[in-house]
Structure formats: structure tokens, C-alpha cells
Design brief:
Strand content: 35-45%
Largest sheet: 5 strands, mixed
Number of strands: 20
Distance between the termini: 46 Å
Radius of gyration: 21 Å
Number of helices: 0
Bound molecules: beta-L-arabinofuranose
Keywords: Carbohydrate metabolism, Glycosidase, Hydrolase, Polysaccharide degradation, Xylan degradation
Shape: globular
Strand order of the largest sheet: 13-17-16-15-14
InterPro entries: Glyco_hydro_43 (IPR006710), Glyco_hydro_beta-prop_sf (IPR023296), Glycosyl_Hydrlase_43_Enz (IPR052176)
Pfam families: Glyco_hydro_43
Helix content: under 10%
Protein name: Alpha-N-arabinofuranosidase
Organism: Belliella aquatica
Length: 343
Amino acid sequence: GKQESAEETVIVEEEKSTFLSPPLISHIYTADPSAHVFDGKIYIYPSHDVESVVEEDDSGAHFNMRDYHVFSMETIDSEPVDHGVALDVDDVPWAKRQMWAPDAAQKDGKYYLYFPAKDYDDIFHLGVAVSDSPTGPFTAQPEPMKGSYSIDPAVFQDGNDYFIYWGGIWGGQLQKWRTGEYLSTGDSPYDDEPADDEPAISPMVAKLSGDMLEFGEEPRQIKILDQDGSPILAGDHERRFFEAAWVHKHNDKYYFSYSTGDTHNIAYGIGDSPYGPFTYQGVILKPVQGWTNHHSIVQVDEKWYIFYHDTEISGETHLRNLKMTELTHNADGSINTIEPILK
Ligand code: FUB
């Protein structure tokens, strides 16, 4: 018999992701959203991603942002309104580049924008800028906050007290400050990390000064503990703190949430004090499209929401777009894990 050889054409269809939520803002790239309700209105303080001529590297040089825009929303379902440039790197005397994830706070009719940037020695510090309006423009203090370093400030108001949380390892440089001084043993973002079986590097917290412009006390390291009370170890990349600190309070418990960086989760711990310790509980938000995962959690009326980002619009890790979805707490205080990619 005659053997027939049929040539098979295999059509490989590229898997397209289906996302839980649509982009919230699409006319500019936005990331790292810090959302707040001030006087009944929702405000978002994100990073403003831009195309950069700087090449991608392990320290995140391609995240070369230079200004901030603030957005407002009348209700959780309305379109965010872009209020334009709220602060530009050229108006911050000490800052050279990389205006990374910001946050904001309101006190006595004034608004404070907290932001990280690299100084002229390429060392990250935290800056503060002040405005009479939640949408800016903000006027920067001439110097960084005294004794500040690393990235990702987040401010949490508890009654009359305001706490600032911060830190990020690798490109965020937190590992370089383990001794209290800037360690420059090498140029790699992986130098100066603890050994895998040592406690992971801690995020930082300090109460803010009454004028909101400086640390009001000696900063403390935050402990993130395992269920058995032992510290999460540096080698435990699935659970250790990487960057993107955020705190919210629910039923009198303090929730500390953060990105695990190279394992791309938003994880959380629960504690009885804004200083911690926080006992690790699990994952709030699974990996999004793109390397970074960075969020904020805010209550609007009776419901809670998580603001986050992915790269649905650009497909580029440093050109991100904001998203938002509801977040739910269970009766036992745990948070239901959110899957941002449906398939
Ligand atoms: O957006 C720049 C940096 O990437 C942020 O500061 C980090 O949290 C990460 O999202």
C-alpha cells in the first residue's frame, strides 16, 4: 500500500491573558498607586512611568520617572481625573532621578506628598513636599528627610498619629543600610544581603514629627514573623519583605502588606500595634503581568478596595497601568486571595 505522509500544520496560538480588572488610567502610564479618601473624595498618588533612554538593569534604572500626577475620583466607579503635574524632579533641589513610588497624607488642611528619589550620589532618600490642595502642586522641602534612605514611603494615620513605613531591597538599597551607614562593598544590588538562613531585612517605621516633615522618633525595624514566632528568613523569597509597604487597620488589627519582589506576590501579616510585629498570613494579590507588584488598600464607604498595577497596555515591565478591584476580609480577619489574571 501507498503510505501517505500528511504534513501537519500546527498553528500555535499565542496565549492571551484575561485580566480580572480593566486599566483605570490609559492616557499616561501609572504605577504604584497609593489611594486615600480625604474629605469624602478618593485620591490616587501613583508613580508616573515614562519611556526611558536608560537601559534596563538589575537595580531598576529603567524605572526613570521624573514627576508625579495626582488623580481624583468622585466615587469608586467614576473615571479618575488627572490633575496634571503635581511635582517635578527639577523642583526638588536634592533629587537627581528616579521618582519612585509615592504616598500622601492629610493633616490640618495641608497635604504632604512623600516620595523616594536618588540624590546626586545615586543614593535613594525620602522627600516631602507640601500643598494646600490634595492634588498639588506640591512644594518640596530643600533637603531629604533627615536620616532617611531607601524607597517606597507609605504613611498610615492612626488617630492623631502618623506613621511612615518604608524600604525596598536590591535596587531599593535597603540592604545597604543594615549597619546604619551606607555600605558600599560592591555595585551589585545583591551585595550586602544577609545569608539565606539569617532573618530577612526588615522594613522600617517611624512616627512622623508634628509638622509631618521629619521622623519624630528613632526609626525602628519591623519584625515579620512566622506563625511560630520566628523571623521570616532572608532565603525565604516566597514570603520575605522586598518593597511596597502598606498598612491598613481593620477591626482594631494592623495589617502590614508588601511585595515579595522576585516572587511577585503581595503578602501580608497582622499585628496588634502599628510598629508590629506582624505575623505572616498569606497572599493578598497573586503575581500580575510585569515584574513589579505594588498596591494600596483603602476603605471607601463600607467596602475595601485594592489598587494595583500591571502592564496590560504596554507589555513592558516599566510602563505600567493602574487597576483596582474589591478586597474582602473574612470573619476571622484573613483576606481572600485575589487572582489578577484569570487565564
Ligand atoms: O516604580 C518604581 C519601583 O518599582 C517602586 O518604587 C517599587 O515598589 C516598584 O514598583
